[in-house]
Write a structure and sequence with these properties.
mainly alpha
C-alpha cells in the first residue's frame, strides 16, 4: 500500500465511519456526495455502504437526522435557566451560527420535504419543533405556542438563509449575533399602536 492510500476499514463501527466520511465530504463539497465517494473516503469497498444505506437518499436522510440532533443539542446548550426573551434570543443566535458553521449540512437538513412520517429526518425535525414550541410556551404562556413558535422559527430560519445566501453580511460574527438578537427581540416585544 502506498503512503497516500488510507488503510482499508475492516472492523469497528462501519456505520459510524461511513457517516463521518459522508459528513466530511458534505462539508467539503456537498455536490460530490455519493455512496462511492463515501466508501472511498472511509477506505472500504464501493459496495460496503449498501450494507447500511439502501441508496444515497437513505444516507442523506440519516445525515440530516444527525444534523437536527446536533442542532438541537447546540440550542439546548444555551442554558438551563427558565426560558425568557433573553434565552430565546440566545437560541436564535445559536441556530443561525449552526447554519453558518455547517452550511452544507444545514442545507441538506432543510432541502427535502418532511413528508414520510417514518422518516428519521421528519422525526428529528418534529423534535426540534417541539423544543422551540416548549421554549416559546414557557416564555409566553398566554400566547398561542404553536403560532408563536412557527413565527419565531420562520424568522430565525429566514435570517439563517439570508446570511448563508449572502443577502445579509456574515463576515463579522458579532454583527450577525446582534442582528439576530435585534430581530427576535423586535418581533417578541412588538406592541400594537393604540
Amino acid at each position: 500500500m502506498s503512503t497516500s492510500e488510507k488503510p482499508r476499514y475492516h472492523h469497528g463501527d462501519l456505520h459510524a465511519a461511513l457517516l463521518s466520511a459522508a459528513t466530511d465530504l458534505l462539508e467539503e463539497d456537498g455536490a460530490g456526495l455519493s455512496l462511492r465517494a463515501v466508501a472511498r473516503r472511509a477506505g472500504v469497498s464501493p459496495t460496503a455502504p449498501y450494507r447500511h444505506f439502501a441508496d444515497k437518499e437513505a444516507l442523506e436522510n440519516e445525515l440530516a437526522a444527525q444534523g437536527f440532533a446536533d442542532l438541537q443539542q447546540r440550542l439546548g446548550a444555551t442554558g438551563s435557566q427558565p426560558v425568557a426573551l433573553d434565552r430565546l434570543a440566545l437560541i436564535a443566535v445559536s441556530y443561525v451560527r449552526f447554519a453558518l458553521d455547517r452550511p452544507a449540512l444545514f442545507r441538506l437538513m432543510f432541502g427535502t420535504p418532511c413528508t414520510n412520517t417514518q422518516d428519521a429526518r421528519t422525526a428529528a425535525a418534529a423534535k426540534l419543533h417541539e423544543f422551540v414550541m416548549a421554549g416559546v410556551n414557557e416564555a409566553f404562556p398566554q400566547a398561542d405556542a404553536e403560532a408563536l413558535a412557527t413565527a419565531c422559527w420562520s424568522l430565525v430560519h429566514g435570517l439563517a438563509f439570508l446570511h448563508l445566501d449572502g443577502k445579509l453580511p456574515s463576515s463579522n460574527p458579532a454583527e450577525v449575533d446582534a442582528r439576530v438578537i435585534a430581530a427576535i427581540t423586535a418581533i417578541l416585544t412588538l406592541r400594537p399602536k393604540t
